[in-house]
Amino acid sequence: MGGRSVVNVSTCKLMDLPKIADIRGNLTFIEQNIHIPFKIKRVYFLYDIPGGERRGGHAHKNLEQFIIAASGSFDVILDDGVKTKRHHLNRCYHGLYVPKMVWRELNNFSSGSVCLVLASEPFEEEDYIRSYSEFKKINNKPVLKQVI
After folding, report:
1. Does the pLDDT value for residue 146 go beyond 80?
2. Distances (CA, A) of 56 to 21, 74, 79
3. pTM, rounded to two decimals
4. Does 9-147 carry CATH code 2.60.120.970?
């Protein structure tokens, strides 16, 4: 049985996507295993989010995600149990790769924003860790956090 790979906020990556500029408008595309490191098995959108609301507030045991601000902007706060890191997404040609076992919360949504999420697995409730204390216990992390 192999050792568990180390996952922390440093393994989360903000990635540039191809942008083809044209006088008729711009085009950005995403190809699995080229622009993102997994096969896409689910796609979903978050939209019409009321002012001040938050989304996420969980981690995944196995699922990986690629998060894109398809329109507008929002913040993604990532937490590995020790450190937290905030990413402000506001361009559809940038995406944030979030591996398994990283706590995520989305907030600060601009009016009319659309969050596009590409996921490595279909929906399975059993994959979610919805309790932060359970997340910390599974990761065997100390209580103190450092914001970077």
Report:
1. no
2. 32, 12, 12
3. 0.88
4. no
Q: Buried (b) or exposed (e) across 41-63, using 16+ Cβ within 10 A?
A: eeeeebeebeeeeebbeebbeeb
Query: Whose CA is closest to 74, among 98, 97, 92?
Result: 92
The set of catalytic residues is: 58
Q: Are 62 and 121 in contact (CB under 8 A)?
A: yes
Q: List the Cα angle 121/127/131 in 5-degree steps.
A: 140
Q: 17, 94 in Cβ contact below 8 A? A: yes
The total number of residues written for the chain in this structure: 148
Q: Residues 18, 35: contact at Cβ < 8 Å?
A: yes
Task: Determine the Cα–Cα distance for residues 146 and 148; give it in Å rounded to an integer.
Answer: 6
Give pLDDT tens digits for 88-133: 999 999 999 999 999 999 999 999 999 999 999 999 999 999 999 9
Contact 106, 76 (CB under 8 A): yes
- Through-space distance between the first and last CA atoms of the chain, rounded to whole angstroms: 33
